Amino acid sequence: MSTRDEILRAIQENPLPVKSHPGDFQAYVHSEDPMGDFQASLKTVGAQIFFCKNGHEAQIALDGQYPSMVRYTSQEVVTSGLDLEDVEVLEIQGEFGVGENGAIWLRDDHLPHRVAPFICQHLVIYIRKSTLVGTMHEAYDRLEGSYADFGFFLSGPSKTADIEQSLVIGAHGARSLTVLVMDN
Amino acid sequence: MLNHAEASEQFIQDAERTTWHDETLWFVRSKRDKASKVIPEWEDLRDHASQIKDHVLANLGQYLIEFEAKAKANGVHVHWAKDAEEHNQIVYGLVAKHGSKALVKSKSMLTEECHLNSFLTKKGVEVVDTDLGERIVQFRDEVPSHIVLPAIHLKKEDVGETFHQHLGTPKGNKDPQFLTEAARQHLRGYFLAADVAITGVNFAVAETGEFVVCTNEGNADMGAHLAKVHIACMGIEKIIPRRKDLGVFLRLLARSATGQLITTYSSHFAKPREGQEMHIVLVDNGRTRQLARPEFRNSLKCIRCAACFNTCPVYRRSGGHSYHQPVAGPIGSILAPNFDKKSNVDLPFASTLCGSCSNVCPVKINIHEQLWFWRQDLMKEGLAPAGKSLSMKGMAWILSHPKIYRLAGAMGRFVVKNLPFLVNNRLNPWAKQREMPEAPKESFQTWYQSRKS
């Protein structure tokens, strides 16, 4: 008997009482101001946020944030992640944001490579104002039926507190995160 | 091997450090309180999460089959391992097949449980732990003392010294920012060179075959997205039915663990990237045995947030290494006897049964009750320390003989009052860090009878 069948048999040998799945979580409180929450959450997780009416305003914000740094804006697919080793600032498009925790959903078909938002030194994400949701429940409602080969929620720059609980920004991933909220 | 009490005794030798450890973990617990109270529906969320996990345990076989089918359809290789040995062999087989001599690994309590690192090292494979805390303890040839904060037993001076020895940082430099930067530079080299990356799994979704890995540092992703081979190792209890259930668990996990709103990265791996091989190893290692024990079954609901560690008055003052298990703290103490009762007989006793662990658990495991159930089980099997069973028997005898009980009470009051040195000495473990209380003039019974008349 294969290990697989052995494990499955061991489970089935002890049938447990029926417990039904509780279904979707309905009891969450709807936020009246997801954008306000989002802004506060980004502050908590150590990210910068700018509201921009158009691309021109976005450029001004980024020039201020990352003066004299090279910004990588191409979405063209690169075969090896190692080619992105020296990227200073990466600009990418986020799908939507979540108010309660500042998370932004990103998917790999909008990235030059899966490792791109991790290997770059600094990260810039554009999201549309209208995409914001309040909670993670609404986030997964939105993701229903939409499948990415690889997708992830990102909230803030990479961080660690493994040395005496002192918060340090910039562990292995991006050292800073700038979120540009575009009018549409 | 020292038992929990003996190891704790060594841990508390340094009073200042013990206090620091205690207060630091309590601070993390307070952050958890703050982060949870922001959510008005927090208690409903815990209930919901607990019910989902109950449902999973009642249908585990079916969900594993569904997960396997979906993952395979996604182009992921699925392996099954009945124990640690088989798990390690599977991982080594994959590493050997690709001719790798070094690999990067992000945090995975399962691989700690299976002692994968030492297994691979013996086979000549260099394992580089990439979580900062894990790298620190790896340099020191130690094991993590906490499942979320692996190096919480160390001070920055210790880390500075360790990095000085292993990374050549200036002696005496103990600045966390500087040391973290040194680790970043050091580990980047390994990320760029590694052919194989191993990660843990926080949640595996039966509905889609995806698995989710949560980190703050980004180390799991740096490894997995650069390596040609990604091996994800998980216990079979990590399955959840639907993707939507992640909404519940991701809200609970980081808030319970560190008081964060969510981890920085919550990565959903569905398919390997172009040209990459992705493997999942599903491990039993005693889980089906625990599943068959009704009173201990729901310890398998654990999502490894460590909230029970941070709140536990015993953990905070005894340190993770005293538990001599990869998973320490209250949850570790109810998981460990399932692996081996004899060598873990001390752990269910390493608790005051105050119940704080159960109160903070995001999936509502009755941890303190299970500690008590294990005590009964271990006593019944005659595994408890001789002194413990003897004193319990003696106590039971005294309590069932009223005359002797009254006499013992009177003697106790007399001794404490007139001959205190007989109890306040080193032979009495209770008097090690405390004075005996002042003896009352009369017993409750005498007082009650005098009132009646």
Q: Can you describe this structure?
A:
The complex is a heterodimer of chains A (184) and B (453). With 184 residues, chain A is of the alpha/beta class. Chain A has one domain (33-182): NagB/RpiA/CoA transferase-like (Rossmann fold), CATH 3.40.50.10420. Chain A has helices at 3-12, 34-44, 55-65, 116-119, 136-143; strands at residues 48-52, 71-72, 89-93, 96-97, 104-107, 122-128, 150-154, 159-160, 168-169, 176-182. In chain A, the strands form three sheets. A five-stranded parallel sheet of chain A has the order 1-10-6-3-2. A three-stranded antiparallel sheet of chain A has the order 4-5-7, with no helix packed on it. Chain A has a two-stranded antiparallel ribbon with strand order 8-9. The longest helix of chain A is centred in the N-terminal third of the chain and has 11 residues, at 34-44. Chain B is α/β, with parallel strands linked by helices and 453 residues long. Chain B has three domains: 39-288, Rossmann fold; 296-380, no CATH class; 401-452, no CATH class. Chain B is built from 21 helices and ten strands. Chain B has a six-stranded parallel sheet, with helices on both faces. In chain B, strands 8-5-6-9 form a four-stranded mixed sheet, with helices on both faces. The N and C termini of chain B lie far apart (59 Å). Chains A and B meet through helix 1, helix 5, strand 7 and strand 8 of A and helix 2, helix 3, helix 4, helix 8 and helix 10 of B.
Short description:
Chain A is an alpha/beta fold.
Give the overall shape of chain B: globular
Radius of gyration of chain A, taken over Cα atoms and rounded to an integer in Å? 20 Å
Please count the beta strands of chain B (DSSP E, at least 2 residues each): 10
Q: List the quaternary state of the chains.
A: heterodimer
Low-pLDDT stretches of chain B are none
The share of residues in extended strands of chain B comes to: 5-15%
